[in-house]
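--- STAGE predict ---
source: upstream dedup step, 1 unique chain passed
mode: sequence only
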Amino acid sequence: MSKVIAVSNQKGGVGKTTTCFSLSASLVEMGFRVLVVDLDPQSNLTLAAGLDYDELDKTLVDLLDSHSQNSAVASEQFIHQTSLKGLDILASDPRLARVERDLYEQNEYENRLSKAISPLKNIYDFIVLDCPPTLSSLTLIAFYAADEILIPVQCEYYAAKGLDLLLTIISTMEKRRNQTIPWHLVVTLFDPRNKIHRTVYDQLQYNFSDHLLETFIRMDTKLRECPIVGEPITVYAPNTRASEQYRQLAQEINQRVK
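--- STAGE serialize ---
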């Protein structure tokens, strides 16, 4: 059975999609088979994987719709390959914005994604969910489907402050599920020369010592170039500092989920 990891932060620009894609590629390098799921109506992960949603016959939207209609269509038919063997994707398209609105009107919508990806858990070692940069119905269905939550956070005041709301949502969900869900913080876009970054990092260590991962991701211009070529950093620039840091993150995540 696979481990399902939701990558989430309602604050945009913290490297969430980059972390989702790069972490997943690093897990593939370790020998795991990984599925990434694009839950963002902006479809950034789909585009980062080098796919054009206008050219795809089926996306996550169709999978969610098929389950809402009790269709017997196999979930595997909605999966697309990326340029990296062993890394597949449930792609997104802008129609997901409609699904985001409609979910609230459906009974037990929280479990919709969990049911949709359930047949895939015997195929993949990890299923990594790229949540939208909002605390919406799509984020909630990701949390209900997840075994773990990974929160990329930038060492900036607003990014760190936004953790309060996200952690409140997680706490509320845990009470409704009557189940604790492990969550982890990973610092991204870190500049050790920046005094504010160092100060916020120290605060994160003080307040969240049990949840803050040892690995942090420093700024790297190569990460910004990856979406242009449709490859993860470990493929596009395998010898860079960023590639090595995401490999370290994959090792740490693998140890944590065990």
